Amino acid sequence: MWAFINKLRSPKWFYGISARLQPWFWAAALILIVTGTIWGLAFAPADYQQGNSFRIIYVHVPAAFLAQSIFVSLAVTGLVFMVWKIKIADMAATVMAPLGAAMTFVALFSGAVWGVPTWGTWWMWDARLTSMLILLFLYLGVIALRGAFASRDSASRAASVLAMVGVINIPIIKYSVDWWYTLHQPATFTVTGRAAMPMEMWLPLLIMVLGFYSFFIALTLMRTRSEILRRESNKRWVRELAEEAN
Amino acid sequence: MSATDGALTKEIRVAGEEPRGGLAVAVWATLKRDLMLLLRRRSEVLNPLVFFAIVITLFPIGISPDPALLAAIAPGLLWVAALLAALLSLDSLFRADYDDGSLEQLLLTPQPLALLALAKVAVHWLLTGLPLALMAPVLGLMLALPAGSYVVLAVSLALGSASLSLIGAIGAALTVGLSRGGVLLSLLVLPLYIPVLIFGAGAVQAAIFGDGVLAHLAILGALLALALIFAPLAIAASLRISING
Amino acid sequence: MSLRLQGQNLACERDDRWLFQGLSLDIQAGEIVRVEGPNGSGKTTLLKILSGQLADYEGELFWDGRPMREAREIFLSNLLYLGHAPGVKAALTPLENLAWYQALAGQRGGEAARFAALEEVGLAGFEDVPAGQLSAGQQRRVALARLSLTPRPLWVLDEPFTAIDRDGVAALERRLFEHARAGGCVLVTTHHELTPCAELRRIRLGGGGLDVGN
User: Fold this and answer.
1) Domain count, chain B
2) Span C75-93, pLDDT tens digits
3) In the complex, which subunits touch A with 3 or more CB pairs below 8 angstroms?
4) Which residues on B lie below 8 Å from C86 (Cβ)?
5) What is the DSSP secondary structure assignment for residue C12, as one 8-state letter?
6) What is the pLDDT of residues A143-171, one digit of tens each?
7) Smallest Cα–Cα separation from B234: which of A158, C55, C49, A173?
8) CA torsion, points B74, B75, B79, B81, in degrees to nearest 10?
9) At the N or C end, where does chain C have fewer CB atoms within 10 A?
């Protein structure tokens, strides 16, 4: 464990290991997403209530999962950065935040599109959509705060603290919004009903979720690598790397 | 500056152990100092209250003077307007101290920073949240808020605004070193205010419908307890970051 | 217990530029250490690091032989830091300002001590005037009154002579030397030339610290 943490202190080591890991995650993402898409769109049975429009869950649900997981990752990397001063963690947090915001937006947008056939309107103050919207604001806050500082170290620490504060709040926000929703709209039909989904429907969903996660890991590795080069551009090993490339 | 004959006789002693005691003195002095500072600048105390009144005036003008309609939306309006008014004064919570260098000194005391920051937040609540809570019933009257919910309105605002001050102070501490932190502060803090808003306005609504008010107030109390535990630590950490520039 | 502040291999990077690198120092009782260097060479940053305010640096700090991380509370109770900004509240009187600082140090303190400290820095008669109505030099003197009001062995002073008149400068300089001779220690940055003497040491920043490597 400690050996691993100490290795993480070296951006050079991470740069090397990520180069080897990256292709595997890209391959997994490609295979899983293609399989899941074809299976979900063409072979999974139509929903008895919503017909074919339910198939948007194959995008909506994985995006929503990722949106939440990435925020938790921001808090974890923030904690790692604050406690052990591991710069890689902060570099990862830097590149993950916009990705998380994008995923939140995808979840919101797909939810809105889904709303048209289901509710007959682009926007409903549905509990899930409302929580997602608040999550988007939290992401925008983290990104804006990081951008506002002149000193990179302060920016990283501030963003880490905000991510940790946010992660403590997310469950509270989620429960209070759920509660608020049931109070105001007691009898509304929720789209992602908790009724048991047949296996032919949830298996492709599972594949899509795994595919989205692989995609997220691959993209994060790739973007962290370029962030390493950017921040370490005056270090000897990066210069040597650049000379080799020439 | 006269020659300091007295200083030579003073023995210079290097403290070898952590300071004991004195925390109560430091916290009490900080409370007293901040109260004194705010009371000498009354406009800073009055501005949020005036803002609250003006915003509440805008709604009947912007929507409709119909008492039935206003009564239906009054709990939410009062809560949102009070929340924004409390937010308005947050930016100056640490900024004055940052500008004149006393924040640096606060960070260099051997006392726990979290508790000293808590004293500052307590003063903010005492001179912003509490007056807003006391004023809200008057504005409720103007919005035709149904009878029977006035006490709950004041109590829920008093309880809830304490959480708002604590959460808001984290944002204020994070943005105190930034020259234009004001708008950013709102962006950071408002999403975190939502649970308090839900249960605060919910309490008033429950009072109107005759539902159990106590459950709402209990949850507001629980949120306050959580904020009391976590916020001072986050505020202290944020202040240390902000002082780095 | 002895007064000893050590730094090993200190380095600080700001905006991809090293302010200083490989800086080691050993500061002990009875010394006045003047940190010198051109504008922007990191004097204030170094003082902030040495007073435990900045965490963004490389290297190790020790107080009395113990790592700063462990000894922080003890270190802080031995430290008096006066920064660029005097830390004096304009809306409070000098007496009220000092009372807060005394309380922050954990002392209830007495009115008499505060009067005496203000008299010492030449502010007799201004005790109850709001500090906002005092001149910049007088406000600086309010801050300097803390030197005798809350006795601490280690003084870290960032440009303490700013805005102070000639007599005041001479008196403050005497005060620094007396403190060092009495077994205290002073870390100071200043553009004012201090009278050379046995206690005075210098740390030069700037110049060599600009190259970057790993």
Assistant:
1) 1
2) 998 999 998 888 999 999 9
3) B, C
4) 100-101
5) E
6) 999 999 988 889 999 999 999 999 999 99
7) A158
8) 0
9) C
- The structure's pTM equals 0.90
Q: Which amino acid, residue B222?
A: A
Which chain A residues have a beta carbon less than 8 Å from that of C54? none
**Residue B146 DSSP code:** P
> Mean pLDDT over all residues of chain C?
87
Q: Which residues pair with A39 in a beta bridge?
A: none
> What subunits touch chain C, counting only 3 or more CB pairs under 8 A?
A, B
Residues in chain C: 214
Of B217, B84, B58, the C-alpha closest to B149 is B217
Q: How far apart are the first and last CA of chain B?
A: 34
Interface A–B counts its CB contacts (< 8 A) at: 79
Q: Are C10 and C35 in contact (CB under 8 A)?
A: no
User: Tell me, what's the ipTM?
Assistant: 0.89
DSSP state of C156: E
Q: Which residues contact C30 (CB under 8 A, 6 or more apart)?
A: C180, C181, C183, C184, C185, C199
| Average pLDDT, integer, range B106-126 | 94
- What's the Rg (C-alpha) of chain A? 20
Q: Residue A153: list chain C partners with CB under 8 A.
A: 56
The two structure tokens encoding residue B204: 């008033």
- Domain range for B155: 24-32+40-243
* Residue C138 structure tokens: 């007088």
Rounded mean pLDDT of C138-148? 93
Contact C16 A151 (CB under 8 A): no
State the amino acid at position C14 in one-letter form: R
Asked if C56 and A153 come within 8 Å (Cβ–Cβ), the reply is yes
- A153 at interface of C, judged by CB pairs closer than 8 A: yes
Is the pLDDT at B102 greater than 50? The verdict is: yes
- Cα–Cα distance between A180 and B195 in angstroms, integer? 9
Between positions 167 and 196 of C, the ones with CB within 8 A of B are 167-168, 171-172, 174-175, 178-179, 181-184
> Chain B closest CA to A147's CA: distance in Å?
11
Q: For residue C119, give every residue at least 6 positions away whose Cβ sits within 8 Å of its Cβ, in sequence order, or none.
A: B2
| Rounded mean pLDDT, A16-22 | 91
Nearest residue of B to residue A171 by CA position? B195
Kindly report the length of chain A: 246
Residues 6 or more apart whose CB falls under 8 angstroms from that of B211 comprise: none
Give the per-residue pLDDT at B117: 96
Q: Report the chain B residue with the minimal C-alpha distance to residue A165.
A: B234
Compare all CA atoms of chain B with the CA of C44 and give the residue at the minimum distance: B244
Q: Do C141 and B1 touch (CB under 8 A)?
A: yes
